Amino acid sequence: MSKTEAELETDFDKWMYVFKNLHKLDKIPTRIQGKIFEKLFGEAELSKLKPTDMMAYEESLKVYRDLKAVTDTAYEDGYKEAENVYMIKLEEERHQKEEERHQKEEERHQKEGAILLLLASGMSPKHISEKLNLPLEYIESLKSS
Predict the structure, then answer these.
(1) Looking at the predicted structure, is the pLDDT value of residue 37 above 90?
(2) Mean residue pLDDT across the chain
(3) What angle do CA 71, 75, 79 make, to 5 degrees?
(4) Residue of 1, 50, 5 whose CA lies nearest to 24
(5) Rounded to an integer, what distance in angstroms lies between the CA atom of residue 44 and that of residue 78?
(6) How far apart, in whole angstroms, are the C-alpha atoms of residue 24 and residue 43?
(7) What is the average per-residue pLDDT within 130-137?
(8) Whether residue 6 has pLDDT greater than 90
(9) How far apart are CA 43 and CA 61, in angstroms?
(10) Which of 68, 78, 88, 118 would you call most buried, defined as having the most Cβ atoms within 10 angstroms of its Cβ?
């Protein structure tokens, strides 16, 4: 038994209706919605094209796919380039922090060496502490090391 458009309830009903009436439908009926039916009607429209129009359509589709492939590749290449730039920047920042840490360590060694020279010359830890504005305990810890 054939159902009318208003009687369509299940997907099976919709498919049967489309198969029976596709040749006389100009647009997708309101009761039949969904991507699969849109694709079916799109393909049905293509099948109506004249051979010259079909060739033009296929050529435009080929151009579209080629352009899409080019833009997708360009996007991927750009993403990889950005990732490389980011990694280089991270490495540079890590290197800079390491250099700063090394420089601070070197300055600390030089300061401690100068303090040890002052202690060796006979200057008192208290006097060194006052002149250099450093804790007395720090000066005394260097003296005992």
Answers:
(1) no
(2) 91
(3) 170
(4) 5
(5) 39
(6) 15
(7) 93
(8) no
(9) 14
(10) 118
